[in-house]
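Researcher: I'm preparing a figure for a lab meeting and need a structural model of a single chain. I don't have an experimental structure, so a prediction will have to do for now. The sequence is pasted below. Please return the structure as tokens so I can convert it later.
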Amino acid sequence: MKYIPRLVMFLAVPAVLFLLPWWTLVEAPSDGTGPLFWLGSAVFVLGFVCLPATMFLGHGPAQSDPASMVGDTLLGVMWVVFSWSVIGDIVGVGLFAGGVDDPARARIVAVGVLVVSAALVAWGVFEARRVPRVRTLDVSIAGLGPGLDGLRMVVITDTHFAALNRLRWSEKVVDVVNAQHPDIACHAGDLADGSVAKRRAQVDPLAKVEAELGKFYITGNHEYFGDAPGWIEHMASIGWQPLRNQHEMVSRGGDSLVMAGIDDPTGVGLDGHGPDLSAALAGADPQLPVVLLAHQPRQVIGAAEAGVALQISGHTHGGQIWPFHYLVRLEQPVVAGLSRHGADTQLYTSRGTGFWGPQLRVFAPSEITVLVLRSR
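Model: Understood. Here is the structure written out token by token.
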């Protein structure tokens, strides 16, 4: 009985995603009769059955890669079609007010939704699979010594190496990162979905990232859906320093800063895991500026209370598929970009380097971020 609410929710979401587009694209333009109605209805019923089944097979105990690719793609496509069905129906109200009657009105809306959705899905696949653009930003840090002025921190995050083999993409990302001549390289979590044994080939090119002052990695929530201890060990084995509620000193030109990192909150259920900012900063010189890697933007509340100069986060993907960023904003204080919190704490939230699930990015392009630290 305790699983019934979860089952209801698991089926209710696909029902909503399919029902409105079915009405917009099938029922309304066909007036509920004829071959279009029956063929379209059959396609939507098949999709409604397929989505929860493939999501369960792909992300449940079976961990089927083919099923996850089908389910994730269907989820992304239906989110686009659902969103633009809502917009199309609003346009339909405007057409009604303008004197356009059915069935012409319903058919205009249906064709418009289909054309826009198809174009956005095609563009979204291209955006998701491309090597991310480089975004460079100067960040002024109070207390940063002149020896560290101009220090280049290259940030990647949310690579989400998963069922779709992106080995070549991974190699190209490394080439772009190295072309930025980073002093420090950071991976802010959600490295991969799945076990080390299944995904390590896609992750291993990260060993070739070159950063003179250090390469630092923290866990995201998705590591804890798979094998967080295994990924922590593997990243250490390929030359990345995991920051698990700890800090390292970074020095150049006679000046230093504190480079700290904390676990993702999802790790609380695993023995010895979970964020502990106090432990991460224990023993650090309070006069030095702190740069903190924390996967989720909402962790900035504690960072601001601790006087952290800059927190670097990912997690949001910038919403990934418009207009999902409105839902992300309900959970996180920031969706993307540089923001200020408290008296002296800044937060940079990356839109992410890869994608989760649906290989789509719509109005939320991926990024490789270069943060150039500047003395005030």
